[in-house]
From TrEMBL:
Residue ranges of domain Trafficking protein particle complex subunit in the record: 345-494, 508-615
Species of provenance: Piloderma croceum (strain F 1598)
Designated name of the protein: Trafficking protein particle complex subunit 11 domain-containing protein
Compositional bias segments (type: Pro residues): 22-37
Residue numbers spanned by region Disordered: 20-45, 87-114, 152-186, 928-955
Highest taxon in the source lineage: Eukaryota
Bias-annotated ranges (Basic and acidic residues): 160-177
Domain Gryzun putative trafficking through Golgi: 657-875
Pfam family, one: Gryzun
Bias-annotated ranges (Low complexity): 105-114, 933-945
Amino acid sequence: MNSYPPELLTQLAPVMFVAGLDPPPAFPGTPQSPPATPTSQQQQDPFTLLTLRLRESFLSQRKPSIWAAEKSKTFQIIPVDKAVRFPPRKLQPPADDPTNSAAHSPLSPLTPSSPLFPDGLIAPIWIRKHTNLVPSVFVLFLRLFELPPHMPRSPLDPPDVEREKEREQEERRRDTELSAEVAQRKKSTSERGIKLTVVLTASRRMLDDPSLDARLTYIRRQSGLDSRAALFVLSPVSVAELNDFVRSLQDALYESAVDYYTTHSKRVRRKRNRHSQASVSYNPANPNAIRLRPEGWTVRYEYKMACFAEFRGEVEVALKHYQDAYATLVIMFGSTAILPPRTKRWAEAKVLADSINVKVCKLYLYNNEHGLALSYHTTHMRKFSDFSRGWGIGEETFEFWSWMARQHRILAELLEQGTRSTLKIPSHRPPPAALATANITTPISGAQAQRGVFELDSMQSLGLNPSHALQHPGFYYYMAARCTEKRRERFLLLIEADGSTLAPGYVNEKKVDHLTIILELYTKSYELFKKYSPINSQNLNQGRLTLWIAYRIAQTYYDSGKFDMAVRFFERIAKTYRREKWGSMLRPLLSTWYACAQQLGAVELSVKLLIEMLGHGTMDNNETYGAEDLVKLLKSTSPSTDAPLIVDLSESEPIFDSMVVFWSPEVKVGEAAAFQLSLTAPSNVDISCLPITSLAIHFTEDFAPLIVRHVDSNSVPEALTRRVDLGHVSTADHKKEDVQTDLRWKPGSKFVFTGTMSSDVPMVMNVSKVVLTLEEHSWNIEVPFDSFTLRAGSIPIVKWLCSLDPVQYFPIAREIYSTVNVRHRPHQLLVSLSHHAPAFLDEEYPIVMDITNADDRDVAVVVDVLLQPTDIDHAVNHIVFDDERSSGLIKGVSFGVVPPGVNVLKTLYLVNTGAAGDRILDISIQSRTMPKSSSSGPASVSRDSQSYPSDTSETLQTLTVPTVTPITISYDVGYRRALAERPGPADLALYDSEFWDDREGGEALVSARMETMGPYSLDVKSAKLIRHDDKYARVLDSAIDHDDDASFPAEYLPGDEFSDICRISLAPDEEYDYASESIPGPGEYEITWRRILPNGEHFALSTSHFPLPSLRPPSDGLIALMSVPPAATLHVPISMSLKIRNLHPSRSANVTVQLEPDLSDAFVVSGLRSGRVPILLPGGEEELIWRLIPVECGYAKVPKIKVMDRRTMSTGEIESEGEVVKVVDVRWDRRAARDDVTDARRSIESLSGGGGPAAGVTTILVLP
């Protein structure tokens, strides 16, 4: 930015003059003292200290700068003297100039003494006038007069009237003088419309004086100060309070400053309108009569209005006026009649146009309109580039590129200053596709509006014009450096051409140090590119461009003769170029690097660079460095040390195309593996003159390197493909004889080195590297390179050389061809698993594992067994193997060392419980070879032993064992009501904890039927019922406990059955939920058995447990139980009883009983015929008894009894007899388990429920 006047670029802000804050004068001859300590400051005059602090605070508010985007009410504050004078506003025209009768500004083009006379546009001095000479606000600091305080001798003394009168007179006189001084300054400021503000400094005592207000009013009136923000009083305060005062003072005066510049804008607008309507006075025949054209006046006034708007902080208004001024300037530049090229006014207008362009770009950037700023700057460069071609300053001149570099640099400096403040360089990465799609299809409203704007901008960046994509400052510094390089090239061409001294600007251009400028620009660009490069980015373009800039810096150092600095850059850049294989960029770098090394006399570096350039071949230009140059250098120089010079080409372009191919991908230990190593020379470089003395082929680390030495051949080989036999290489050969052959490659020729390899231990064999040795004079150079390297553009074709005459190849199709795996011979183990499927639940199922060693070596065998988890419900399984028990994995069961031809047996037991289904076993047999054992039997071996060789093998087998149930059991459960007499409510036995109350539950009859399953017979040793009585259920008796016959032990064939029946007493408590709960079975059947194989062999005893079923007793509501003897004797009386029970938990019962005799009855009845039973409360019971005398023999029917519940006899207006209550014969009382769906507590059982009719009908056998 130093190329332009700073006044044209500086950010304009309101100007404030501050007078009366001059530092105290120093005594003559007194040296400058150091800053006062706090103690000396306290002893200093408080008003002097206040003046110094105020001056410091004002000066720290705002500094003139080019970038100032903050919108705050701050001024550009300039300290001035109290008697400062303003420049004259108007100058009277000369008396001899009749054309200008009006007075004009000294800087007007109409004033003959003006630097712009007669046709100038605008001068930087005009902006300097409004920024340094004329303020918008004038602040005057004055001291308010105060007499020293009078201290009376005694507090009781009366006030001294005379002294007070003298004090008032003196204060009035001093106030009058102060008012006159203020009035004089007020007159000068009022003439220019400048706001005058007076700040009176007074002591704190004065602030409390009651006469202060009157004095201030007198001063304001006498001096003619405004009533608003014109007079302030300030006393000595702290620094923080002073800063607050300065800020509040600026806030109070900012509006006045805006009004001042608004007035100027209105005045300039009126002038612009007046000139736009006036006629053009231009007479080409009279040059003395040339005046500024209307276009020039438009530029002048638009620029002034833009500056005044910038003073006011109105960015949009200033931007509009700057653009209008620029547009008119472009029109003026379009006509050479208005602005002839290479004239003074043309140069001034060009500087003004460039400055306006910077202003417009800066104001756009203030509003974060980055694309508009860059577009405007690009358009400016394009327009004036077109103008330059018309002016004869095109791309062929250094002036054009100097101007282009200046434009790029000023934009870079503007962005750099902005980024130090508030400017953020936008990121042009496109948003994710999903996010962009969502933003397109989803409406944006409300609080998402602001975010939506930015997302829309991001989406639009997918099609962003590159000329609108603002980059960071480093990019524009780079462009400025490139333009400066073009400038230097055009200048050098001009020097070589004839008549160069006649070119415009030639003398000044000779003074320019172009290379220094280029280095400065490239260095700034390099630093900024490193700053803005993402740290963890997969996009490498930024890093590569940074390296390219570093390469340009190195090239510039080379052009300027600083070869050591160039070499430093080349070393760092070449590392990345080699690693990323940028051959096209590395080749010219190496050439320049080699030229630097020649200039520095670095012989070894020159040798390394020449060898590396051999791999890159020739360049398109005439500059070539080949093998001849390397040989000449070796013959004419000597190394600095006797040690071999190692040239590492691991990341560089190789000299040879090398490839290793093995014929077989895998061989056994001791077996030979054939390989071929091919080295192909480049076709565009002749390396036959290289002094190659030997070629060292390095294999896997266990092999000694093989040396191939050069022997001169008498005959010149014409074949392009030659084969060299290397013989056999093994790990046992620690020193092999060297192979001799002619190691001279013609362009494009190939050497194929063939041989075989073998190893006594398992490994991966390959050719690790090849070392080429060159010896010439006193030089010994070693060039190591990888066994598989390809030059740029080479296509890897994997093939095996079959014959030389003719040359034939066999293609190798596998992926891994450069290595061969050496493996042990597999172990010959025979594994058999014998068992008798299926397995039964609850038994230890034996699986016999037989391992036979069919190998000729001793083998140590270790077995792992994994029982896979199963998805079968309630299945719990485990395995037992060699005294180890596990539900999952048994690891490391040793079978010992098995000699050849010996077999070893071990039994694995599988135990299954729960449900039937398949069980899966994974068996791993691991073996390793052992030294020959002296004993004939197997020896014990540890799994973790480290003393054995690593010849291991593993065999995997999966065994699926079907599992079935040996015995199935089915239950049939019936329920009977309790017939025992119910104890009364007052019976204390009810409250005994051991009292068994089965009134609600009754008895359960459980019938169990056991059936043998599976394909094998079972030897059942015993079967018994194990009781687990609890508080709800008890086993009363079981038939299996009283079985007197010898049922067990016995052999049961598949399908045989045996059974048992038991009685269980049930006693649920009152809180028992019949609808959802069940009573666990109070016991289980335990059956001891074992399997019988077809050959009569028996397995070990096993025990199975079958729990009794859960009991779900049905519930009763109102029920009648009839009890009669099963048989009777003719004419002998018997009793018949009827128990009526109300088991409903909450309802009472109104029961009627009616005996319905029939003529066919065979009994004479004595008892109740028809009657009502007392009200039965819930849980109540009533018993009725009849006496019967049989009168006939045989099966006789008992008289019918009808029981009714009349509790719900009334249904509206119709009366019914009630509901029938079921009568149950207790001899045949047997019920099924309850149904969960129905109500568990019915009041009256329906006719379909139970096992008999509603009216009790039963028979008795009458004997004679």
